Amino acid sequence: MDKVVTTPAEAVAGISDGATLAVGGFGLCGIPSVLIAELHRAGTTDLEVVSNNCGVDEWGLGILLASKQIRRMVSSYVGENKEFARQYLEGELEVELTPQGTLAERLRAGGAGIPAFFTPTGVGSQVADGGLPWKYDGSGGVEKASPAKEVRVFAGADGTEREYVLEHAIVADFGLVRAWKGDRHGNLVFNKSSRNFNPLCAMSGRVTVAEVEELVEPGELDPDEVHLPGIYVQRVLPLTPEQAADKHIEKRTVRATQEA
Questions:
Q1: Which PROSITE patterns match (predicted)?
Q2: Which of 110, 205, 218, 228 could potentially form a cystine with 188 if both were Cys, beta carbons 3.0 to 4.6 Å apart?
């Protein structure tokens, strides 16, 4: 099945106001920047976005945030975006902060058909007990807080009993990811650290769209090098060389050249 689409507009077709998106990437590494830009151009709004973070000011998901197209974020790290902090503290944005490993497993579980799982992460904290501010009222008060979660005791591999908190899987309407290589059947290969949340977000989406830096023909990818099989991908958008090269760095750290 040829899953290639030719334009960004065709790639994001069907993503309507109020949709839930699982967006790959870690920081600015491996983010589907072309798909994000197309959603910005289309003006799609009231989005709930599940992603490790929300980009930075003026790039990545930060573009959608600045234009008030995101209603709710489910993230694990948000410390690089000043506009994110402003919207959250002033009650303009709902935020569900989730431990990073838990977020990854919630996405994977959604793609694997596992409705929920128990984890020791968060036991004894507001993650399990509830009370984390999800939304402020704009005056410093909490309008909406996280609920308490079920906690149960299980014996571990060593026989020692400990508490575990129940976490629910995430299934998104759409998964948006970026791959290094992909074929027309949707089989994807990710480049080094861009193989972060991308496979998990692809698994989580009911419809997954992959922008690929290099499109190859079926059979060109060795099965052993495929990181994500095409069963999880419904649309493949080949990028132009210019689009593929347009990558940003969160914080550039350099050392002054020492003169001889």
A1: COA_TRANSF_1
A2: 228
